[in-house]
Design brief:
heterodimer, A: about 350 residues, alpha/beta, B: about 325 residues, 2 domains, two-stranded antiparallel ribbon, 14 helices, about 0% strand
Chain lengths: ~350, ~325
Amino acid sequence: MKRMAVFVLGVLALGVMVWARQNALLINGAGASFPNPIYSKWFDEYHKKNANIQFNYQSVGSGAGIKQATDGTVDFGASDGPMNDEQLKAFQDKRGSGILHFPTVLGAAVPTYNIPGVTAVLNFTPDALAGIFLGKITKWNDPAIAGANKGVNLPANDIVVVHRSDGSGTTYIWTDYLSKVSDEWKNKVGKNTSVNWPVGLGGKGSEGVTGLVKQTPNSITYVELIYAAQNNISYGTVKNSSGNFIKADLAGVSAAAAGAAKDMPDDFRVSITNAPGKTAYPISSFTWLLIPAKIPDAAKRDAIKGFVKWMLADGQNFAEGLSYAKLPKEVVEKEKKAINNIQ
Amino acid sequence: MGSRSFASRLRDGDEIARLITMVFAATVVLITLLLVYELWTNSALARAKFGFHFFVTRVWDPNIDQYGALPFMYGTLVTSVLALLIAVPLGIGAAIFLAELAPPRISDTLQFFIDLLAAVPSVIYGLLGVFIIVPLMRTVIFPGLNKPLGFMPFFKGPSYGVGFLTAGIVLAIMVIPYIISVSREVLLSVPRDQREAALALGSTRWESTWKVVVPFAKTGILGSIFLALARALGETMAVTMVIGNTPTISASLFSPGDSIASVIANQFTEATGDLYLQSLVGLGLVLFLMTFILNGLARLLILVTTQRGSGVPT
């Protein structure tokens, strides 16, 4: 009898929970997978503070996020690369109003390699990286690499380039950087979430490319900083626009953002690869929330605005614990003003 | 039967059973038609823009919106053919042993393991490929084949471990259980008197197996091969893990390549732009077409070979 009562109570409690959940305002989002860990954390924390608001985020990839936001199947999107003019126009045409970009945190891509006998941290110049990924620098002891690594005994072996085979925000950052530092790359390959690679092997996902590099002697690839940090993968430094070799860390990424903050356009669609600043890490990028400028549902509009406000203040404190770089102050201030553009 | 009214047949339940099972059967056709319809309409842009050139273009570049299926078709075909070249002799040999020569207890035990193999998810085979076959390929098989045979284009280097042959081997391992399972069943179902008749005519055990039982079961064995081919053509995960994901057309078996299923899986989620997406759907249509044509050829092959007279009832 007692057991029965506990059971009934349990069912009742569950029912109340489900009912409460259903009564919460549900806001759907979809997009980039790179910031998914921190977005999940944010939405969870925000729900704890505001029990009546529930965010549901699907990390389906930046491309799908943009598409779903444009189709209106989600309330907001998220992307590792800003939407291009064509995509903005498509959104405007379809929905009759614009879409706003809100930077949330920053990430970076780092070069990692496997050269038997070389344990030193290698320095990479922009020319060396572009040359390697264009297939023009084919040996590890090429002067373009060796020149920046005096004292390291580089072998005369062929370089094996490894890149992502799946579309990814990391590839976008990497090719965006190469497009900035090499005209040949810009004209021949360009920037995108997946490109027509001149050379190399493709691996699926961060684990795919690192797996290939671990196995293949004399190989090189790129991964997200957060992935390298979490998996203890060593990586090289990259020469920034001030001529310093920078080993990527959160401070260097934030410095790149601060360097770009002065010239931040009003729509926040800015690439901060090869940003100015003595300590700026050159292969850094914002990741964005894509929020429609017009949200007819007042409750949803207020909830989204409230979340963005919180994300820019308290939310930023969660970033570094999860290996993301915080937004610089200047950007936060600018974004706070931009929240009013959501109507 | 024919004179009975519909109502009485309905009361019997015969008609109900007929209707229900017919609906089930019809769904198969319906799903196939729906699939083709979806693939066709959702690739309209790509078909209009590229037309037949889609089949012969080698470039796949989202930045200039230029898409061609040729390297992916090549990769799909080469890996599947390699897989069958390896899997068919092994699979049929094993099936003959299990059905004809092995003691029943061993045969049943082994069959248990084979069924187990068939149920392993493809990502596990992919991992097997990445951790065992890829290094083996680079350090042992490639040097072993390249040194004596490197003058032939098939065995030219360099080898990164990943590539057509690696994908072919992984696919072969994946499809062998299908070939063994189905072929063994077919061989076991060959009537006893066929064997006895052959033995009575003075043939040895092997002669009765090879000249009577196997030809009798030929249709079923071919069926198992086509099941294997279909699986190999469409396999995604395991292939993408070991093929190198580079859209190249090279005669060398050690060259990295790409397949239709793997490029769709790789690029679909991040594909932006209508033409890009529709070209990926177009690739799906091409894969469907390839499967369709190969299946048709297979049927034709069965028809031709059985007509030549092997005593197989068709």
